[in-house]
Design a protein that fits this description.
heterodimer; A: 461 residues; alpha/beta; 33% helix; B: 279 residues; seven-stranded mixed β-sheet; five-stranded antiparallel β-sheet; 9 helices; 30% helix; globular
């Protein structure tokens, strides 16, 4: 008999006024009992609407039935046939807009906590499983992956499982891409990312860090070295600024820089050699997950007041609902319908404030969201000593500038077909490098699709 | 891990190291830089390539001991390893078509000016080199510059070696004396580059400078290295590090370079204390 409770089992979490002072994980994860209870809310529908909401098509009801039966290893096996990074996705996927949005239980109450169950299963596996990864039989073909982020790692994992000799090239000193430089420790502990990467290594994947494609080696040279196909998952790494006065003052960061200093370089730890400003009052400009991450990091670094400044309303915010809620609980102040016009500084060029105007919502724009319009005479100054710009990123030009025959669009994204194939033979691409800034799971989906297409391409060559 | 093949103390505060990094050595060109991390908790710091040996697979770096990271790096010895070494980054210095160039180096900036002078000289360009230092004890790379130039003027602030005065004094004398340069390439402290540019602007001589702002990734990801050039924001790591000196906002660059001064001073003291304890 299914559990007919209209509500999800709540996720145990650190109390807001405690967690906003540390970098430990916020959500603590279901216990075994909670997981089984939650799994029993699943009706095991025949037509599985949830699966259609998953970018990598995990057989969700099947793994949940295994959880009901307390067969957690079995559940893990089902998830891992479709997802290379289950412990990551269980934490960072926007489930409310994907699988859970299609859940039948969501019609008359809350959907099944699919993300929370996925996380439980993956964590259980990482903690209890002793099964050694089986190295697949080599098929004698060599492929290269550019970028060790979610798209690249997924593509690498799938190709390795098919028997390919896979080398992943990463520009930074650590593999993981946005999972290590962008998403903070309190949302995605780095040892979880490391475990997933160790899993790939156990499959035989080689990871070359400190290698910048386009500088250290070019795409052409990779082909000369015998790689038969390439996947570019180099992400959308170039930060955008608003182009307003004062953006080069000291205390203005791109979210990328602020988060990289905090997460990758561990600037929040005493023994890190990387400096970061410990500001008192911080404005984070933007309304996405990156803005929430930056705001919550700033709070944890000791800021008294952290503002989210966003030109549209809260409804229009692209961030996951859970992140917005967590941020609010932690004391982040939301200043929606406000738009910065200038950043002000003192004689030493340190930030002293940010001039903003109030906005109101007008007609819907091409994105379907109501576009903000400036209110007359509404200018005011927000007193802050740091401003973090989290208004998006665009793809890095290094590869497109050093590779012939790779078509890009006007935003600088690689043009790829539905299988990830680019305009150049043997070169595939996916993730933010193709779509512009999007989500971890979409990048993983693209990596997965491309792996299949690369396999077909090499087999038919 | 990257092995230190050779270490040479150039003066009390400046050290040279050859690092075993064949992939970087294969591609490096004058004007480009690398990013290194000394150890696991280390920060990423950019250093401009001072030389490279494609056959041996080594890249030469020359650094001034100014903070915690360079202090730690300086405590590493031949045969030991540094954690990370990535490059070559940035765009190489444009030297094609130049027939006569004045290369101006200031202090440890001479380490970056030298490979540029060498490459120009190898390409048959007439090179006038001006190397400036605070005093005699800090002089580096004199023989190297001599071999890579048609004329070398050594300057010290206190006159303890070469001619007393600033590099701008020497450059002004050359230009006033009738030397006509296709370009001046100036590499050194921001304040020196600022004054060189002020001078060459007067005489209408095109001037290239090499900027070395605070950065993290060196590939365009963080934007920390941004500076204003001709009223536009540029990223030194991908758009530079070379820029038209007459367009660079040096005052802003100097302010930005001082962003973490207190932190750096504190960290440096901490590191020094640590090493002193070990001794």
């Amino acid at each position: 008999m299914p559990n007919m409770s209209p509500k999800k089992n709540e996720m145990p979490a650190q109390a807001p006024d405690i967690r906003n002072k540390n970098f430990k994980e916020v959500a603590l994860g279901y216990t075994k009992e909670m997981a089984i209870d939650e799994a029993n809310r699943c009706l095991n529908c025949k037509n599985k609407p949830c699966v259609s909401g998953c970018p990598v098509n995990i057989d969700i009801p099947a793994f949940i039935q295994k959880v009901c039966a307390e067969d957690f290893d079995g559940a893990y096996d089902i998830i891992s046939t479709s997802s290379s990074l289950p412990a990551v996705c269980g934490r960072v996927c926007p489930q409310e807009r994907q699988c859970e949005s299609k859940c039948v239980r969501g019609i008359k109450g809350e959907p099944v906590g699919i993300g929370r169950l996925e996380r439980f299963v993956a964590d259980w596996h990482n903690e209890h499983s002793t099964a050694e990864a089986k190295k697949p039989e080599p098929n004698g073909h060599k492929v290269a992956i550019i970028g060790a982020g979610p798209a690249g790692l997924t593509c690498a994992g799938d190709l390795a499982k098919m028997g390919y000799e896979v080398t992943v090239f990463e520009a930074l000193h650590l593999a993981g891409g946005v999972l290590v430089y962008g998403i903070p420790e309190f949302r995605l502990p780095k040892d979880i990312v490391q475990k997933e990467i160790d899993g790939l290594k156990a499959l035989g994947v080689t990871i070359c860090t400190n290698t910048v494609i386009g500088r250290t080696i070019t795409v052409d040279e990779l082909f000369e070295q015998g790689y038969e196909a390439l996947f570019i998952g180099s992400g959308a790494g170039l930060p955008r600024f608003m182009g307003i006065n004062g953006e080069n003052l000291k205390g203005v960061y791109s979210a990328n820089e602020f988060l990289t200093r905090t997460n990758l370089m561990k600037a929040y730890k005493e023994d890190s050699d990387t400096p970061i400003q410990h500001a008192k009052n911080v404005a984070v400009v933007g309304g996405g997950n990156v803005a929430m991450d930056a705001a919550r990091c700033a709070k944890r670094l000791g800021a008294e007041n952290v503002y989210i400044v966003y030109r549209r309303g809260e409804e229009e915010m692209p961030a996951r609902k859970e992140e917005v809620e967590h941020a609010k609980e932690e004391g982040i102040i939301f200043k929606t319908l406000n738009n910065p016009t200038e950043i002000l500084g003192d004689e030493h060029k340190f930030v002293t404030g940010m001039k903003c105007v109030e906005m109101e919502l007008g007609e819907p724009d091409e994105s379907g969201r109501r576009s903000p319009v400036e209110k007359a005479d509404s200018e005011f100054v927000l007193e802050v000593d740091s401003v973090i710009m989290a208004i998006g990123t665009s793809p890095n030009p290094l590869i497109r500038n050093t590779t012939k025959g790779l078509e890009t669009n006007r935003r600088g994204c690689f043009v790829a077909d539905e299988n990830g194939m680019t305009s150049r033979e043997g070169v595939f691409a996916g993730g933010d490098a193709v779509t512009g800034a999007a989500t971890v799971i979409l990048a993983m989906g693209a990596g997965k699709t491309a792996a299949k297409a690369m396999d077909e391409y090499i087999k038919n060559k | 891990m990257y092995r230190i093949v050779r270490k040479k103390v150039l003066n009390p505060t400046v050290t040279l190291m050859d690092i075993d990094a064949p992939m970087v050595a294969a591609k490096a060109e004058p004007g480009q830089f690398i990013i290194l991390r000394v150890d696991e908790n280390g920060e990423r710091i950019p250093l401009t390539v001072a030389d490279y040996d494609r056959e041996k697979g080594t890249v030469t770096i020359i650094f001034q001991i100014v903070g915690s990271t360079t202090e730690k790096l300086n405590h590493k010895n031949e045969g030991e390893f540094i954690q990370d070494f990535v490059g070559p980054l940035g765009t190489p210095t444009h030297i094609d078509g130049l027939k006569k160039v004045a290369v101006v180096g200031g202090g440890v900036g001479c380490a970056i000016a030298y490979p540029v002078a060498k490459k120009l000289h190898e390409n048959g360009c007439e090179v006038h080199a001006i190397a400036g230092f605070r005093n005699k004890d800090l002089v580096i790379l004199e023989d190297e510059f001599k071999a890579a130039s048609d004329k070398l003027i050594m300057m010290t602030d206190d006159g303890s070696y070469g001619t007393e005065g600033r590099v701008t004094d020497a450059l002004k004398e050359l230009i006033e004396g009738g030397e006509q340069y296709d370009e001046v390439i100036a590499i050194g402290p921001l304040i020196m580059m600022k004054f060189v540019c002020a001078l060459t602007k007067e005489y209408g001589v095109k001037t290239t400078v090499s900027m070395n702002p605070i950065m993290i990734d060196g590939t365009g990801m963080c934007g920390g290295c941004r500076l204003t050039v001709g009223g536009e924001t540029k990223f030194a790591c991908v758009d530079g590090p070379d820029f038209d000196g007459h367009l660079v906002d040096f005052d802003e660059a100097m302010e930005r370079a001082a962003m973490y001064r207190d932190f750096e001073r504190h960290k440096h003291e901490e590191t020094c204390n640590l090493f002193n304890k070990e001794v």
